[in-house]
Amino acid sequence: MRGAGFAVFVGMVSGFMAYVFAQVVHLAKKSLLYDIGGYAEPHIIKGATVTFWGPMWGLIAIVAAGALISGIVVYLTAPEAMGDGTDYMIHSFHTGRIKSSITTPVIKALASALVIGTGGSAGKEGPISQIGAGVAGVLSSVFRLTDREKRMFTLAGAGAGVGAIFKAPIGGAIFAAEVLYRSAELETEALTHIIVASIAAYVVYGLFDTWSPIFTTPSYQFSIIHVPVFALMGFFMIPFGYFYSRLLRSVHTVFTRSMIPRFLTPFLGAIVVGFCIAVIPAVSSDGYGWVQEMLNEHLGLKMLIVFALLKIVATSFTLGAGASGGLYAPSFAIGAALGGVYGHLLKIILPNIQISTGAFVLVGMGSFFACVAKVPLATIIMIAELTGNYDLLVPITAASFFSFFFSGNWTIYEAQVYSKKDSQSHRQDFMVDVLDSITVMGATHLPQDRITLRPDMTIEDVFRLATSTGRQSFPVMDIEGNFLGLVYMDDLRAIMHPGTRKEMHEIVMVNDLVRDDVPVLKPSDTLHKALTYFIRSGVEELPVLSDEGDFLGTISHSELIAAYERAVSSYNNSNV
What we know:
single chain; mainly alpha; two-stranded antiparallel ribbon; two-stranded antiparallel sheet; elongated
C-alpha cells in the first residue's frame, strides 16, 4: 500500500511538472520562434495562418542564441542537464547515482524549453523523463526510501512524465521499463508502480489540459494481405536508423573529445542546425505540426525525403553537441517522414495498392523508433494512444518487431545496456540467481576422503598431519563417529607460532580448538545459502553433512567462486 500510494504521489507531481514544462515550451515557441523569428509549425501556434514570414538570418540567429544561452546556463548550474534527458535517466538507474537535488529538474526544464522554443531539433519527452526521475529522486530522499525503492520510483517518475506529456499513460510506463535495455527485457519489478504513477500523471495533466490524443489520423481498413507490406517497412527503416545512430554518436564523440569548452558546443552545433533550417525551416523544433501534415498527406515525396535527411542531421547536431532536449519527438518525426517516403515509393511500384500514405506515416513513426531506441512494445502501445487509432495495431506490431529484431545492438541511447546482467543495479541480483541455481553437491566432490581427528589428540599431532597433507581444516569425530566440528589451520597456527612454549603444544588438545559453532551445510543447499554462511562465519571452509548427520566433507570459499565463474562463463558463451 505504501508503494502504491507513493507511486500515485510521484505521478501527480510529475504530471503537474509535465504540464508546466509543456506550457513553458509553448510560450517559448510563440514568443521566440513565431513572434520574433516569424516561424510557426502548422497546428501548433493558435491563430497562425502562415508557416514562415521572417528573414532567414533572423531565424538562424535565434536558434544559435538559444543554444548558446542554454549551454552557458546548464554548464554553470547543472552540467548533467546537457544532452538527452532519457539517456541521463538510464545512466542514473544503472549506476545508482540518482541525484536528490531539485536544481537539475528545474534547469533541465528551462534549458530544454529555450532550445526547443528557439528551433533546436529536440523534443519534450527526453527532458520530462529526466525531470520526472529527478522529482522522484528528491521525494525518495525526503521520505528516506531505500536505494532499491529509489531506483524503482525513479523509473516511475520518468514513465509518469512521458505518459503525461504524450497523453499515453500505458505506453509511457512501458517505455520507462523497456528503454533501459537493448534486448527484449523489461524492468518488471517496477512496472506496476510505473503504470500507477503514469496514470496518475495523465489524469493530472488532463485536468489542466485535455485528454484528447496529440494526433488525428485517417481511418484505415485492416486487411491481412497488407501485413507483409508493412512488415517490410521494418527492414526499410534499419539503414536510416543506423545512419542516425552513428551520426548522433559521432557528433557527440567529436565535441566531447575536442578542446572546445563544453558551454560552447551547443552553439557550434546550432550553426549546423541553422544551415539545415535555411534549406527547410520544418526541421526546427520537435516537428509535431509537420507530423500531422504528413498524416494528413499534405507533403510530397521530395519534401519528405529532404525533411527526413535534414532532420537526422539537425537532431544529431542539436543533441549530439550537448544542447538540452530529447530524442523522442525528432525520432518520431524522422520515422513519420520515412514512412511517407516508403508509402510513396510503394505506390509507384504498385499503383493499385489500396493503402493511404497516412497509414504508412503512422506505422513509420513506430517502426523507426522501435529500431533506434530498442523499445518495440512501448512504441506499439504509445502510437495507438498518441492517435487514438487502433486500426493499425497489427501493421505497427509487424513493422516494429521486424525493425527491432533485425537492427542489431546499436541504439540512440548510449547508456542502454544489453540486459539486466549488464546493469550495475542488478549485478547482485544476477549473482544471487546464479548461486541459487547451483547446489553444494554441484560445486564440490562429495563424499570426500578426509582425515579425521579425535578430541583427545594434541595440537602437536595435528600440526604434523597438517604439514604432511596441506589441508586447511580437519573434521573432529567422537568415538562413536559423530561429527563434533572443524579444526582450522588458522587457529592452529596462532598457537604453534615460534613465540609459544613447547609445553603448550603438548598440553592443548583438539577439543580446545574445535569450532562447533560454524554453520553446517547439506549437499542440496544452494551456493547462495553457502555464501551467506561464509560471510556470517568468516571462515574459509564449511562442513557438509548428510540428512542423517554423517560428515561428507567440506566446501571452500574458493570452490564456491570457481563454480560461480564456470556458470557465468557458460551463460555468456550460450548467449554469444
